[in-house]
Amino acid sequence: MTDTPLAQDTQPQLHLFSRLYEGTCIITAQNLAMGMKWAQQWYQWFYPPSLKPNYIKMYENRPQLPIRIFFPRDYDQTSPQALPTVFIIHGGGFCMGSPEDDDIWSERFATMHNALVIELNYRKAPAHPFPTAIYDLEALIIAVLNDESLPMDKSRIGVGGFCAGGNLALSVCQLPSIRDKVRPAAVFAICHLVDQTIHTREKLKMRYRKPDLERDIRGKSSWGQTFRWSYVPIGHDLRDPLLSPYFALRDDLPPHIFLIGVELDHLSHEAWRMANKLAGRAVPAFTEMAGQEKPARDSESLILDDERFVFEQVDLGGKRSVHWLLVPDEAQGFDHFSTSFYSSEEAARAAHLKTVAYQELVGQWLRNRAWIPALGRAGKTSPTQTHREYT
């Protein structure tokens, strides 16, 4: 691999046969996913799931996009207590997925951190390409903000997302309406895509391969270019900060930013570069790898004593911060796959424990870093009192 990988400034037009191939791939995948969802809904009609959101709501500005709302398990909905609020944006390459994909994650986080968690929705490419999803999310966030029936503490708001949802979280937070009206104190992104200029085959070279780990196979996805072709209009500037948040100005993002990479994911390198760039640190070369070549000694824990895996940069007396975390020995989706996906109980247990561990860190960061000024101004409960133990 060269020091500078193959990069593009604008979205190219593909040859006819390539367009037919990519279009067939994405439409087939969407139809298969729709069929599986239809079958799951019928199954749940007869066998209702034990885990359900407290509310499913639709708003007039986007009636076709229901959102899902989770309260902490023991929250008294008759209480006047306002809750810190986290908006979550699901992944799926801008083309697939749905809010319920994040139900387990959202319910756990809501209870763990005594927060209101709202799963957002958006229309999918290729029928609805960039920037449709960003403006869908903008409309829904503002609608929720104006919904007086929800016990939101509007001084304590965070926006987060997974993979494509992480990209969308970093993008929607740049919009003037979100910056000026919603004013989220924090944004966090997990397994996120931030640089559309680099071809997927180049990104696949920028991560360690650990063939001894059975879950390494999940890092070898070749769908990245199909999703990009479906989402990005031909000829569009790939350095547009709403498309590639790596190129966003620091002042256009929320004051507190937490970027979470996953070591075996082909997106880990660009996430690492963005974290260093935002923190004012030296940006890693394309030839450097995020993480370490060998598996971690402790397969069930995060690595919190190595700057390759974690660091925090705090500026302006705590008014701005950038936090980086790299989850070792896992690949994209590790925090969403069911235990049946893994071929061993040990691998499933390790993924679960690391998911809970990073959720704990994100919540601590929100309480003790991003939301501290709001707590102080409002005279609300101290940060340590907002946390709930979760098992």
Describe this protein's structure.
This protein has 391 residues and is α/β, with parallel strands linked by helices. It has two domains: 15-49; 51-386, Rossmann fold (3-Layer(aba) Sandwich). It is 32% helix and 16% strand. The chain has helices spanning 16-46, 103-112, 132-145, 164-172, 176-182, 200-203, 224-231, 268-278, 345-370, 372-378, and strands at residues 55-59, 62-70, 83-89, 116-120, 152-162, 186-190, 256-262, 310-315, 320-327. Strands 1-2-4-3-5-6-7-9-8 form a nine-stranded mixed β-sheet, sandwiched between helices. Helix 3 (132-145) runs parallel beside helix 5. It is globular, with a radius of gyration of 20 Å. Residues 216-220 and 376-391 have low confidence and may be disordered.
Topology-level CATH name of the largest domain:
Rossmann fold
- Give the biggest sheet: 9 strands, mixed
CA-based shape: globular
SSE-based structural type: alpha/beta
**What is the share of helical residues?**
25-40%
Would you count the extended β strands for me? 9
Radius of gyration from the alpha-carbon trace, in angstroms = 20 Å
Roughly what is the average pLDDT, rounded to an integer? 90
Poorly predicted regions: 216-220, 376-391
Widest sheet, order of strands: 1-2-4-3-5-6-7-9-8
DSSP summary: helix tally: 10
Domain tally: 2
Strand content: 15-25%
CATH class placement of the largest domain = Alpha Beta
